[in-house]
Every structure is written in structure tokens, then in C-alpha cells.
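Re: folding output
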Amino acid sequence: MKSRSRRIDFTGYLFLLPYIILFTFFLILPLAYGLWLSFMRYELTSPEAAGSHPATFVGLANYREALADSWFRQSFFATLRFVGMTCPATLILSLLIALAISTIPDRRQQIYRLAIFLPTMITISVAGLVWRWFYAPEFGVFNAFLAHFGVKIPWLTDTHWAMKSIVIMTLWWTVGGPVIILLAGIRQIPDAYYEAAAIDGAVGWRRTFHITLPSLRPVLLFVVVLNVIGAFQVFGQPYVITTGLPERSTEVLLMYIYDVSFNNFRLGYGAAMSWILFLVIAIFSLIQFRLLREK
């Protein structure tokens, strides 16, 4: 029995082996290499890059340079603005849509689930180009509609509107995923809870606030953490729609890291900024777990 138990455990690890191999080669090793690179001076345009020692150890110099870099701070604050606008809006909108769809009979729910999830299946390049046309100041769909009311909005050419325009497009593109997750969580709530609440006189929004939302707490935590992580890693939307304009107001941190690493060929400095972003995401995730965890 003892040897059979060991054999069964070993078989389980064999089933895990393909994933462990892929996880190690495509995530763990690149992360480790990026961490090593962040302590190096590695510039592809330098004369040393063609030699046998392309990287020079500089310690924390890359991190100190990043914290003193005004463009790094500007792109970081642009990312924070995007996160601060996108995450609450995504959570509220997805929760309202999920609650509304959950009241529809099951057979008709499939149509609404498909309609709300369909935009997430579109690649960011296609979605970004389409919305760039929507936002066009002269012939765009939105301004053509607003022209009937005598209104014209500089969606992508004004620093006040550019980031908001990206947030609106992001909501349309990404809200379907959280809606599906929340709908699955709502379906897992036992009907007995609602029946007991109905006997006590809890109906309408009282059922939502006293039964649905507390029961969805673990699912809400999952949705919030995933949205914050995804929002901090935003790249495609501003890169395709505004390219960081106007006045670099929509140049988020990943765009600056990409520019420094692959246009200026400073791979070590780019790796250091990437690890700073990783630490910020980790801190925000821990704070959310602390605030939203179950007692």
C-alpha cells in the first residue's frame, strides 16, 4: 500500500510535468533573466554589445535612474490615472450588467451573454483602429451624432479627453469577461437564501445588498484583482489609438518601457522599470487581498 501510494503521487506529478515545464521556460526563467538584466548596463548600441561581455553590472543604478526620470514618473502617473478610472468603472458596470442579465430567463440569457462577451474576442489592433475612426474629429461616428446637438468633442486631440476616450474604449472591449465571471458567481448562490429572505420580507434591492453582494465577495475579489493587474499592464489601447499623444498624456508606463528597451536599445534600464511595475502591481494586489478578504 505504501509503494502504491507513492506511485500514485508520482503519477500525479507526471500529469503536472508539461505545465511545469512550460511555466518554467516561459515565465520563471524570463522573470529571472529580467531581474538579472535590471542590475546590468546593457545597451545594444554601445561598442561593448558586440564583444564577449555585453552586460556590465551596475547594481541599483538603473532603479535610481528610473526614480529620477521625469518621463518615467509622467508615464507612471498616466498609468495610475488609467487604473483609477478604468477599474471602478469596470467593476460597477460589469456588476450592474450581470445583475440585470441574471433576472432574464436562462434561455434568453445566452443571447445577452454572447453579445456582451463578443467584443473581448476582437484583437486590440482591430478594435483600436475601429475606435480611432469612431473618435475622428471631423468624420467620426460620435461627433457626427453629437453634431445634431451642436456639440463637438476633441476626443483624441485634447489632454482632457484623450485618456477618458481610451477608458471608454477599454470598458467596451473588456467588460464582457468580468460580466461572465460574475454571472457564474450569481448562479452559484443557493436559491434557499433568497427564499428565506423573501419570508423575512427582503425583496428587490434589499436582496441584492444583503444576499447577492455578500455571497459574491470572493468572486468580486477575483474580478477586482484581475482588473487592477490588467489595467496596470495597459499597452495596446493607447499605443494603437493615440500613440501616447497629445503631449504624451496617454503614454502609459509599458509604452515608455517599450520605447526605452526596443527603440533606444537600453534593455537593462527597461528591465529595471519593468520590475518596478511588477512590485507596484504586487503591492496593490496584496492591499486588495487585505481589504477584501473574508473574515
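--- second protein (sequence, then structure) ---
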Amino acid sequence: MIEAATRDGSPLIDDRGATFVRLGAGPPPPLVGEWADYRPEGALPMAELAPGVWVGRTELPVNAYVEYAYLVDGHRRADPLNRFPTSDGNGGRVSGLWMARAPREAAQLGRLPARALPRGQLTRHRLETGRMVAGRTRTVTLYHPPDGEPASDLLLVLDGQDYLVRQRLHRVADALIAGGRIAPIGIAFIHHGGDARFAEYGCSEGTLGFLADRIAPFARARLGIADRRVAIAGPSLGGLMALFAGLRRPDVFDRVLSQSGTFELPGRELVTSDLARHLPPTPIRVRLSVGTFEWLAGPVARMADLLRARGYDVIHRPYVGGHNHRAWAEDLIHGLESAFPPAGSGAAGGRPADG
């Protein structure tokens, strides 16, 4: 086991779960993971198999991708034997765990070499905020389709810097366009406001005005896209803001791709529930996805049921995983195929892509 962990990394994967190996004298720090929502009380028990060799195990679905960490002085730290360290988005470092059949297409497409397929162009812009969001200017990165092909449609992406750096969505889009799986789209990656993110994405009318009345027209003009309604995507609080935008401004947004949307806080609903209940339903298409290990799985399911009962066109897609950008990247492939079918495909609402 020591040889295998040293050679292949930890954990050791089989068809039923994962076996974690930690080397060192004394009991290891608590091992926590998304399978228990990182709760300290859900730390995985580890036993000393041999002097200085500690082993723990958890059962997982064969198609799961989850992240985990050791808790050191209250901070998440990556497994020193794991080959896939990553940020947890909150200043900690965690480790990735792919079961044997976990999807890895986005990870592969995002790392294709430049010679493998035509590449789109990224242009970086600073837009005046008009004090609608934090700061005087805000960064927006535009994705132009490969080979100078005109963009047929527009996607606004919240938490844009994370979708660029951690998901490499622009490279995934290159591959999907080249493969004829989606139409040639333009993408506006909207950088969040750092410490102001919670305030900006917590159903803020100021953020909504900035997105709908400044960024969408600017991106359409720069990308040469007709004055038509656009799609909006985001994760977690960004997923909340994406749905809020679709419900409040259906004149601008006609497709919502919400990933792990934070539609509730513990013990209470947020304003999107009131909007869904009381606003007249509008012709927008809503896609709600969430990891089965997330505490948000229940709130997302309740939101899907509420929207469907009110007459909205809803896709509810649970996937086997947690609350992280690698899982969202894999899920978003299905979302893009749903929202932007290629011309002549005959797809309606993207349901074939989502199953």
C-alpha cells in the first residue's frame, strides 16, 4: 500500500470507493471531504495499519468527483500524497478525487494544445460601473469565436475570472464549437467584486442593472451580435444571481444556467422564491444543476419544483459530485449544448443534451 500510494498518489481508487493513505508519526489531522460537506464531525476515521502508516476509507459512487482536505489548525490543507491539488475558493488548498467513471471531458478539452483546434480570441476590457457595483471600473473579458467566425449568441458568465482560470471555459468552448456541438457563441466573463461578491450577487438590483443595461449591450456591440436576449450563467451565489436576473429581467435574459444556486440560507428562503411564486411566468428557460453531496441539493430541487409548478421551462440536473469548479466545468458542457444548439440541429430547449 505504501508503494502504491507513493507511486500512484493518494487515495487508492477501486470500483466501490477510495482508500486514503497518510504517512507520518502520530495520528493525522482530521480528513474531511465533500461527501460530508467538509463538516469536522464527519471527519473520516483513520487507523494505523503499520508504524507511521495511517489508512482511512470511504465508499463513493463510481462516477463521483469530489474534493477533500486535511484540517490543520482549522485550515484546509491538500493531501501531500495527492497529485491533484486545487484551491477551495476560500484561501484553502484541497485535493481532487476522481472515481473510475467520473467525467473528465472538460478537464481534457481545456488542456488541448493550441495546434489541436482553432482557438478563439480573448479581449480584456474595463467598464465604468456607474457605482452600480463596487469600484469605479470592473473587468470584463470577452471571448470571440475561432477563425473570426461571427458570434451567433451571447453568454454572460458571473465569477468570470474563475471560469477562465479554473475551468478554462474559453478552451472548452473552442472544442465544442469546432466539434459542431454548439453554435459559435460569444462569452462575456464578468469578474466578481472580491470582498463585495456576497453583496453584489445577493439579488442586488444594482448588479442587475449593470449586467442588463451596461454589460449585455457592450458585449453585443463588441462581438457583433444582434440586439436579442442573452443567456446568463453562474455558480453558487452566482447561480442565485443568474436566476434572479432571469426572473427580474426576462426582457434581457431568456436562458439561465444556474450551477449550485444558493436559493436558501439555513432556515430561510431568499427573494428568488418570492419572485418565482408571485411574478407572472415568462418565457425563459431555466437549468438548475447541483451536486448530490451538496447541502444545496434540497434547496435547488425545491426551486425546480416551484418554478415548474408555476409554468416555467425547467431542467433540473443533479450530478454526482460536490460544490467545486471541476464538477461545474463538466456539468456546464451539458448546459452549453442545451442553451446553444448548432444551427440545423433541431434541438429544442436542449433536453437531449441533458438527458
